[in-house]
Amino acid sequence: MVLSHAASGGSSDDSVHSTFASRYVRASLPRYRMPENSIPKEAAYQIINDELMLDGNPRLNLASFVTTWMEPECNKLMMDSINKNYVDMDEYPVTTELQNRCVNMIAHLFNAPLGETETAVGVGTVGSSEAIMLAGLAFKRRWQNKMRAAGKPCDKPNIVTGANVQVCWEKFARYFEVELKEVKLSEGYYVMDPEKAVEMVDENTICVAAILGSTLNGEFEDVKMLNDLLVKKNEETGWDTPIHVDAASGGFIAPFLYPELEWDFRLPLVKSINVSGHKYGLVYAGIGWCIWRSKEDLPDELIFHINYLGADQPTFTLNFSKGSSQVIAQYYQLIRLGFEGYRNIMDNCQENAMVLKEGLERTGRFNIVSKDQGVPLVAFSLKDSSRHDEFEISEFLRRFGWIVPAYTMPPDAQHVTVLRVVVREDFSRTFAERLVIDIEKVLHELDALPSRSSGPSLQHPNGDTVSEKDLARQREVVSVWKRAVAARKKTQGVC
Ligand SMILES: Cc1ncc(COP(=O)(O)O)c(C=O)c1O
């Protein structure tokens, strides 16, 4: 950044020509009030860019399912449409058309009962959370209409899920006043038990939500068994409790890797499905999809009809304005990769997850709590955490640049702590191998350190002396962090 004398507002400060000695960089930045005066654009860029360098590296953020790499051609398409507000459908009819095409393609991928050229019922959202709010609202309204028509009270709706649901379900329940009835987990069983779920269903249940790819360990819930049990219960009771599938991650995995697995609209009680375009849909953050089985499953009074395009454009979203880039990028990925491309990528992710899993097993130190069939991730916990625990491993791995979260499982498995590595498209074989090596190094370091409960040993495996102060500081960081994680409710949970 080179600032001219004039650009600096006529300052007599000679140092203004030197990037890092200019007065813009030397002064503390305003944090609470907007500054009175403008600064040059180069200075603004440099200051913000530099501060952002302290963020983690997204590519090494193994905590996230969300896409961190796309092809340059798609990046260009996204930048070219960054100034298009999606909601201006009369101005940008092609963008709207691309969204509709994405809805159709995804609905077909999920085996919606549609003719070849029939339009699907669905909507693009900011992510799975918004999609889940919309799906939940549709179930609530449909249930209320049914109860009113039967002359029954409709003020106590509930929804049945596993305790492993992502925070967005808790948000839905709280924001839209629906009781969340959670099936508890148990050690070794970290997904919703369909039998227990169906037992919890009553006349006020608006739907049972199953997860295709649990956030905690990537496992697919047994939607088929849930469907069969619920069909039976519906027949016995005369109710018609439906199913929603939260396929935030698994929706772009199962169709490619496990095409025989029945989890989608092939099952009659599955009325809606959400998927995150920005997870294994392979688009940067800001896109999700909600697809309904048919028009009957989306009460008409929730839909706003706009006819800017000369044709009816139904809209059902929580927000009005949003960017167009993600919609365009999703369309790019669908047509650029096609079924073949997605299958290749998911296959590769799965293989890399296996390399990582096998590497971790070879250490002999971990139990693997993820399944081979599921989202390509590896969730693992220490076989023996009496001396050191998963939080310390997570903390130590940060020194190598890796961000690997550690968290405790929900009730009744809260005594189990796991580490989780999400394998995304850009997590290569080299990364998988390298991560295993770094985890081994961390284990050696931890082995040489005193256990959390004993006094400090002052020798590192490499022979370096570790000062008591450093050790105390390290322990303090870990214990503060552990307390913070323990205190954290799902409202800030892993995502
Ligand atoms: C199973 C599940 N559902 C919903 C969500 C929320 O998704 P989004 O971030 O797209 O809102 C997540 C996020 O990780 C998830 O794993």
From TrEMBL:
**InterPro entries, alphabetized:** Glutamate_decarboxylase, PyrdxlP-dep_de-COase, PyrdxlP-dep_Trfase, PyrdxlP-dep_Trfase_major
Q: Its Gene Ontology molecular function terms?
A: glutamate decarboxylase activity; pyridoxal phosphate binding
Segments for region (Disordered): 450-469
What EC number(s) has UniProt assigned to this enzyme?
4.1.1.15
Q: Which keywords describe this protein according to UniProt?
A: Decarboxylase, Lyase, Pyridoxal phosphate
UniProt key word Thylakoid: no
Q: Which residues carry this modification: N6-(pyridoxal phosphate)lysine?
A: 279
Residue ranges annotated as compositionally biased, kind Polar residues, are 451-465
- Give cofactor(s), names only: pyridoxal 5'-phosphate
Per its UniProt record, what Pfam families does this chain match?
Answer: Pyridoxal_deC
Q: Which residues form a coiled coil?
A: none
Write out the GO biological process terms. Answer: L-glutamate catabolic process
CDD domains (alphabetical): DOPA_deC_like (cd06450)
This entry carries the following GO cellular component terms, namely: cytosol
Q: What catalytic reaction does the record list?
A: L-glutamate + H(+) = 4-aminobutanoate + CO2
What does the similarity note say?
Belongs to the group II decarboxylase family.
Q: What is this protein's name?
A: Glutamate decarboxylase
The encoding gene? LOC123447564
